[in-house]
Design goal:
Elements lengths: L6 E2 L4 E2 H21 L10 H12 L3 H19 L3 H29 L10 H12 L15 H22 L5 H17 L6 H9 L1 H6 L7 H15 L10 H7 L2 H19 L12 H8 L1 H67 L29 E8 L7 H15 L3 E7 L13 E4 L17 H6 L2 H10 L6 E5 L7 H10 L6 E5 L4 H11 L4 H24 L2 E4 L2 H7 L8 E3 L21 E5 L5 H20 L3 E5 L4 H10 L3 E5 L5 H5 L3 E4 L10 H7 L4 E4 L8 H4 L3 E3 L2 H11 L3 H18 L2 H29 L13
Parallel strand pairs: 3-4, 3-6, 4-5, 6-7, 7-8, 8-9, 10-11, 10-13, 11-12, 13-14, 14-15
Antiparallel strand pairs: 1-2
Length: about 800
């Protein structure tokens, strides 16, 4: 199977986009290798001239950086409660590394008496420095001290334009003429400064991700579109940062056609990279490009200064004695080595440590809690006015869901982020470490609960099930109380384990009669049915079975109380919605099947060379998962051994169970937790979901489907899938029958390939996360409107109260 650029599931990190940053920085670096003059560019023949033009066009790596900004800035705007907070973050991001880089370049220019400071008085030099510090050139006629700073000027224009647009669109009601005027001004800037055009590439790809995902088959051959982009943009002659050639000039002389070609090619290339739609850019996931991508901003700022020094050494000490070829190699190696070292130091010292210090010292705000910031119980609650007219949602969970090492965590994290991307301010609280939250998830405010959970021994005699009882700590109750002093439009109870907070949330609703928040229960299973099945089917000591039955009864009581009292119930499957929400009005229930965002395999063919292996992937820390795994392995291992089939188990298995299974198994290998499943998928023919106990939607189905792995499952595990998708899988009502199906299909390669291809095509159409958050936001808004209408009718039905009249008695 072709290996794709993975999304690191442990940190929810788009490796392709980060590697693309490094790729853009290296293109600019290679351009400067040619423009430095150490070696002459090839010329004289058509082929040599084409090579020279291609080398020159690598300068457009800067425009490719703009595509990234257009893509990420919209998400950054969504994650900030205020536009002020967004601008503060952008200021720190840009200036943390820009100020020291500008200071270093300025000192070198003064020391070498370079032309912009030649014969300049102290005040004139100070003015030049200040103008460059505030990134005024080339928008104003001031000399550039740092030759790359023009791109930062363009960046700030884009940031300000984005903020103005967001402010206009958030106004209630928004005025069409003001939005139109903003769009015209932004368009005019692009017309006068055409190199800024490619911010739009990122904006369009970000805004149209579902469309590009549905049409991913069109996103092949991004390297070809890269070459088309470089060649077409070079034909426009757009190599000036200052005001020179404009789009209006291109309309007159026909160069608009080259510009349009370059823009369309940029859309194709960038969409393909961000969606991992082709193998051609899989090198972006390598350690080299990931490292350069991480330090790419500092590398962009510092590499030219380093190259100016190594160029002098090359021309003075190397070329005269060893020739041009050795001189160029020395220039290349020394510039790269020193540039990477200096850039890494700049990144670690300025972009990370200095930026963190600045945020902590000058820009800390209780209104926007970034990862790591915790509210102090007893302090006044932050003002909800900071969120403007945005819907505000408090999300009560059992844990901070990162790292994403379990299906329930994936679902909670993705749904919360999707809701935030729909425009809702989401504050997510739970046990865990907020430092594990990746930058890509910064659209949500993450608050960790201080301290640890309670021990299970203290939950035996209580009325709450174990999951709820161990979370109900004094620290969590105090933190929740502090949060509920703010005004919220919705409060989410994520999973039955948060039921300990139900009474406090109901009291909060009563206290907020003028603005009654919507209470939402995000369920992951119909827990009553799950625990009942587990209690009846679990084998082992009588005391263990008794404990499970006792906990199952407490789960049933708590889950029913939650469902009875919430305003909105969401389930992962339609089956759970019909059973768990059977007593609720249809408008109070909502089925939100998971979406998928992660590693996606490109086209794959299972052949005779593919090993006869079966794979099971998951997290096996929960007792239900352990029972399912042990039962399947017990049945399948001897049968697989007999038929020459091997079974790979991927995921953490508790040591006690692992030792027990390893002692019995002859055809099964245990690999523990892995960060990259692609190699295991490449050498397997079938993926198995053997969970005969437990309802809900199994997220591992999506891992298999998008990894182009044929799926075998017990019938009850697939209940939450669309029927059309179920028909693409091997399915049987018993584990014994399922093992027989796997053996019979192991060498039916054409059938296996048809199964995985059809499942992949259906999965791409149905499992898109962004739609889930919008549906949840709309459902909350609908409940709010219904509540407001009911309250208005109650108020209208009450008789008017007669005014009190004082009677004068003589």
């Amino acid at each position: 199977m072709p290996r794709e650029i993975p999304v690191n599931k442990k940190h929810d990190f788009n490796a392709a986009l980060n590697g693309y940053r490094g790729f853009c920085a290296l293109l600019v670096f290679v351009f400067h290798l040619g423009s430095a003059g150490v070696v002459s560019l090839p010329s004289g023949t058509l082929l040599k001239d084409a090579a020279a033009n291609l080398w020159i066009s690598l300068a457009y790596g800067v425009e490719m950086f703009f595509m990234i900004s257009g893509f990420v800035i919209l998400g950054s705007l969504l994650r900030h409660a205020t536009l002020k907070g967004f601008l503060q973050d952008r200021f720190i991001r840009i200036y943390s590394a820009w100020m020291p880089a500008l200071a270093a370049v300025t000192m070198v220019c003064i020391a070498l008496n370079m032309k912009m400071f030649t014969d300049a008085s102290f005040l004139e030099g100070l003015g030049i420095f200040a103008g460059n510090l505030f990134l005024l050139p080339p928008l104003l006629p001031l000399p550039l001290v740092h030759q790359g700073s023009w791109s930062l000027s363009y960046e700030w224009v884009f940031y300000i334009s984005a903020v103005i647009g967001a402010w206009l669109l958030r106004r209630k009601p928004s005025q069409t003429w003001t939005v139109g005027a903003w769009a015209i001004c932004s368009g005019l800037f692009i017309c006068f400064y055409p190199r800024s055009m490619f911010f739009l590439t990122g904006v369009i790809v970000f805004g149209c991700r579902p469309w590009f995902t549905r049409h991913e088959r069109w996103l092949k051959f991004p390297l070809l579109s890269l070459l088309v982009f470089l060649a077409a943009w070079h034909l426009t002659g757009a190599d000036k940062a200052e005001l020179s050639d404009t789009v209006f000039d291109w309309l007159k002389n026909g160069r608009w056609l080259a510009a349009l070609t370059a823009f369309v090619a940029s859309l194709h290339m960038f969409a393909s990279i961000t969606l991992n739609a082709s193998r051609q850019f899989e090198f972006l996931g390598s350690r080299t490009f990931q490292f350069v991508g991480t330090i790419s901003y500092s590398f962009y700022l510092w590499h030219a200064l380093v190259m100016s020094a190594t160029k002098r050494l090359t021309n003075v000490y190397v070329v005269p004695h060893y020739g041009v070829v050795i001189g160029f190699l020395f220039f290349l190696v020394s510039s790269m080595a020193i540039g990477l070292l200096v850039s890494w130091v700049s990144w670690a010292l300025f972009e990370v440590r200095f930026a963190k210090l600045v945020r902590k010292t000058f820009f800390s705000s209780p209104n926007v809690r970034r990862p790591g910031a915790l509210p102090v119980p007893g302090e006044p609650a932050s003002s909800p006015a900071s969120a403007g007219n945005r819907m505000r949602c408090l999300w009560i969970a059992r844990y901070i869901p990162y790292p994403l090492d379990a299906g329930a965590k994936v679902y909670s994290a993705r749904l919360a982020q999707s809701l935030a991307e729909s425009g809702v301010l989401v504050r997510f609280i739970g046990f865990g470490d907020v430092h594990a939250v990746p930058e890509a998830a910064a659209g949500v405010e993450w608050l960790e609960v201080p301290g640890k959970k309670r021990g299970k021994v203290f939950t035996v005699c209580g009325a709450l099930p174990i999951a709820a009882a161990i979370d109900s700590t004094k620290a969590y109750r105090s933190l929740l109380g502090a949060q509920l002093r703010e005004r919220w439009d919705a409060v989410v109870l994520d999973g039955y384990g948060t039921g300990w907070a139900l009474e406090r949330c109901l009291a909060y609703q009563e206290e907020s009669r003028t603005h009654r928040p919507v209470l939402v229960h995000v369920s992951h299973n119909h827990e009553e049915l799950l625990w009942r099945a587990m209690a009846s089917e679990t084998r082992g000591p009588a005391l263990k079975r008794l404990a499970l039955r006792s906990n199952a009864n407490r789960v049933r009581t708590l889950e029913r109380r939650i469902v009875r009292n919430v305003d909105l119930l969401t389930t992962i499957t339609d089956e759970d919605r019909r059973s768990l929400g059977a007593d609720l009005h249809e408008e109070r229930t909502l089925s939100l099947t998971p979406g998928y965002i992660g590693w996606v395999a490109s086209e794959r063919r299972i052949t005779a060379e593919t090993p006869r292996r079966v794979i099971i992937m998951g997290s096996f820390q929960w007792i239900v998962k352990q029972e399912n795994l042990a039962h399947f392995v017990e049945i399948a291992d001897p049968v697989f051994k007999e038929h020459g089939i091997e079974l790979d188990i991927i995921g953490d298995v508790p040591q006690e169970l692992l030792s027990l299974l390893q002692a019995r198994c002859r055809a099964t290998c245990f690999h523990g937790f892995v960060t990259d499943v692609a190699p295991f998928f490449a050498r397997a023919r079938i993926g198995v979901v053997p969970e005969s106990i437990g309802g809900g939607f199994k997220l591992k189905f999506l891992d298999y489907i998008f990894g182009r792995m044929p799926v075998a499952t017990v019938s009850q595990a697939a209940a939450g899938l669309p029927e059309e998708l179920q028909r693409t899988m091997l399915s049987n009502s018993s584990l014994e029958g399922l093992v027989g199906e796997i053996v019979s299909y192991m060498d039916r390669l054409d059938d296996l390939n048809r199964m995985q291809e059809r499942a992949f095509a259906l999965g791409k159409e149905r499992f898109i996360w962004c739609a889930r958050g919008e549906r949840l936001r709309q459902a909350i808004a609908d409940v709010q409107q219904q509540s407001a209408c009911m309250q208005a009718r109650r108020d209208a039905a009450q008789p008017a109260k007669a005014p009190d009249v004082e009677l004068a008695v003589s």
